[in-house]
Design goal:
By secondary structure, the chain is an alpha+beta fold. It contains 9 helices and 10 strands. The protein is elongated, with a radius of gyration of 26 Å.
Length: about 325
Amino acid sequence: MLIAGLNPAAENILGISQLRARGESLLRLVDDEPELRDILSRVIATGDHYANELRLAPTEVHAEERIVDCRVSPICSESARLLVELTDVTRRTRISRENALLIQHGAGRQMIRQLAHEIKNPLGGIRGAAQLLARQLDNDELTEYTDVIISETDRLAGLVDTLLGPGGPPNKQPLNIHELLEYVVRIIEAEDEKSLQIRRDYDPGLPLIDLDRDQMVQAFLNLVRNAATALQGQGTITLRSRAVTNFTIGDVRHRVIASIEIEDDGPGIPADLQDTVFYPLVTGNPHGTGLGLPAAQELISRHGGLIEFESRPGRTVFIVQIPLEQAEPGR
């Protein structure tokens, strides 16, 4: 399993020069990745060709996790027995995932609107009928029942309003995203008096961004509150901001975007929920409504952005991607 040689593309992926790599263990360079170890062992044992998609952990050279297509073939050579081909498909995979999220968001938004329409129309009639009935009753015990009807229809109407979210186009004004995040932190800290740690890793070079303050506060509040709930008051939330150039959201390439990350060191999102967390009424929290993430995605989408996420036990990151130059409605 020792490297006999590698080309410039492999030098870049592995973060090591050919001179330094020769004679080194390939597995050591990829943090002893178990799937790669298994593939290499099988090719040596069987002589067959194998291919698989692997995730390479962050290194000193590459700060982010990467996804690579790995193909391993037996070869006959004086110096080597295996040919390992690695293709970095991280960005391609992320674009496919972002497109899936956009489709999911569109389906979720349509589901919300249909559900809200079906619920809200009869609610006004039920409430009105209960009020008329209450006026005809002179028995306090009976009016208690009409009060319950009115109270519950009001509660359902509030739920529908939450599903629909703030209406109308965004009222955009130049905002400092860090000031907005600090406002959200103050709300969270007022709600939670336990030993929750908040860390900041802000890019001071981020310019003012045209945003609707109320909508963005609600979106970030939903995300940070989710992180706090996952931690149950014990752990660390990291708020991180960066400017990213030449970034594609959906099928639109932006010259520069703001990337805002909300990271927590909690247990992570259950694997069976990761493909559906942005659908309404999907939640892993027994006390949650399943509306926070879909509402946040809707509010960010109104600014031409998208919320992505990565999750594993010990590290969950929601990444809010907002173009610095947003198209106006109708353009």
